[in-house]
Amino acid sequence: MAFTVIRYSERPALWEDTADISHEVWPEYNQHGDVLGPYWGRLFDEFADYQFALFDGESQEVTAEGHTAPCDWDGTTEGLGDGIDAMIVAAFEARAADRPPTALCALAAEVRPRFQGGGIADRILDAMSETAAPTGSRTSGSCTP
Question: Could you read off the pLDDT of 85-109 as tens digits, one per residue?
Fold first, then answer.
């Protein structure tokens, strides 16, 4: 399969059915976080260039998604906080304070179950690195150094 990386900012209509991917991949309890919930939808408005899909042109469907956020990271383990909740809050706080990003945090990678096991996860990680490159940011995979 040949995938095209498409950012949300380039084709927002591609995301009309991506809630289905989240429901296929994540357990129900993961979709109602008190911290993550209020910020997740804002990723598409405020960090549109950092959300992407792997699109299979042959089948004309989204096979996977990648969600990242630029953050102001000091390069230390302590500066990472306690996981995805801390990092998404930090990304939005840095944006509000107009602090330039120094890293890109990998928030989530979602591969539709029927496409899992075929190396798509590697392509998502490559796309995350490509997303970070134009900003001059380091990629902090899964919010770890």
Answer: 889 999 999 999 999 999 999 999 9
